[in-house]
Batch of 3 targets.
Target 1
Amino acid sequence: MPERPDTIVVFGSNKAGRHGAGSALLAREEFGAVYGIGHGLQGRSYAIPTKDGRPGTPNLRDPKATLPLNEISSYIQDFIRYAKNNPDMRFFVFRLGCQLATHKDSDIAPLFTGSPLNCSFPEEWAAYLHFDSTTTNQGKDNHG
């Protein structure tokens, strides 16, 4: 959990913005995530969709609701641009896409390559993050 009050939590969401479980529920209850908004900055949280959840799609409990990596990657790239454009903000990235969504850490973590130094990541991702130490985060857990 972020200890600094100015830290934005980055959590796995669904396109419908139904923040009812996992880090999404925590983001809604503690960090201002808005029910019904599935992407972007909300209060002290930033949503990255990893599941669908819209009407007419598989139930969120169904593994088929998990978004494909190329779609999640697009949302992650949006986040990286946002983080780079806001260097005075700090971001605490939860282990998104690997718990309620069904991807592996080895699939999701590398998608954050190119993130700026104002981002920190879960310890579980350290082995999968590949950063240039002169311009970006070095992939270690600096959540504290």
Note: Residues 69-85 form the longest helix (17 residues).
Target 2
Amino acid sequence: MIKGLLLDFYGTVVEDDDSTMLAIAERVAAGSPARPAGSVVMADWEREYEAVANGTPFRNLRDCAVQSLATVMTAYGCPGDPAEFGAGQFSGQVLPLRPGTREFLSGVTVPICVVSDADHAVLTAAIAHHGLSFDAVVCSERVGAYKPHAAMFRHGLAALGLEAGDVLHVGDSLRADVAGANAAGIRSVWVNRRGLPAADGASATYVIGDLSELAGHLR
């Protein structure tokens, strides 16, 4: 019996900022003498971001994004201020709810803890903007670690007062959400929002397209 949920936020409850980040990467590509494809720059930025986020000391998401972007801009010979290039990612724009979110949240009866890598102020502002309410919110900035670190999942369980076997963790990242939850002994639900091959989610307990499909797994 499922007694509670740990719920990723960006890419799961609301849309992710993929298009904004790609636009930044394409601007870097346009400023590089090598003229790489924006998608290539984006992939390099994501890898560098992960390296910074996994390093020490802990840095909030915004600092990780700017520092990793600075490294990528230097590597591609793109002049400019990384903070200004990346400003669009932190413009204060609130991303829309994903399909199925409102429908699911209006009917769910088990307690929910949001477990998100987003910075605290950004996350709480987005939750308030959409008029959402959760039993608890855990963010990396307060924990001092990013998913898939076990500390994020431990804090989520503690916030709900539940054990690993009592909950599902739901998220769109195979690495941060599915692998992280699995390593913590928590059953995982992969939100396959990009329609990737089903085999990609083989390690997840369940695979869904959006939260409206989750209700059937809570019975």
Note: The first strand starts at residue 4 and ends at 7.
Target 3
Amino acid sequence: MNKARQARRAFFFLCKVPRRKRKSCYHVRVAIERARQPAKIDPAELALRLVESLQRERIIPRFVDSYVVENGRQALQVHAALYRDLLALLQREALLAVSARALELVFMELPPEGKRKTKPVARRDAAGFRRKFLAALTRQQKWNAGDALDFQSDLRRYEELLARTASSRRSRKPFEAANHPFVDRSAFVLDSSFLEKARVAASRALKELEDLASQTAAPSLR
């Protein structure tokens, strides 16, 4: 009788082992598949990273300082209050530029061969993503309702202008000014008396801003 019980226990034990192994393999396979799936982009996190990167890299202060030195325009920095206002206006333009570029990267659909780790946002989700992104920016910048609406309106204007010139974008030489709303608006704010020189300098700053947006929104494209 004892031998019969031992035999039955051994039989049940042997039958359970393969099932346990199959279950374990299943969970391993699911974990691998989940790891292979591209990570979704969080709009609030993207907004935070863009703002932090702009502040950390100091693209706008360096842009203004280099322009003043190269063109002998020290008068732009004489009055501290006016200089702070100038930097604030240009920083806002920079935030518009990186936001427009980052959203463009997030929403665009790459071909199958594109090696991208982050998952593009589906068209049906684009409006919600954009709304959450702008809401996060509003909280971070502590804008009131009017400031938030002004930024949204300017961002839409940026995107519309960029959409019109998308087919004509090309690599440019260092002394050429880019056809971009950031370049035109920032050059006018910076130094309307020397507009062409300001546009060329703003184009160099734009290159840094676009690189920053690409690195923030789509690290795998670096």
Note: Residues 10-15, 26-38, 110-114 have pLDDT under 50 and may be disordered.
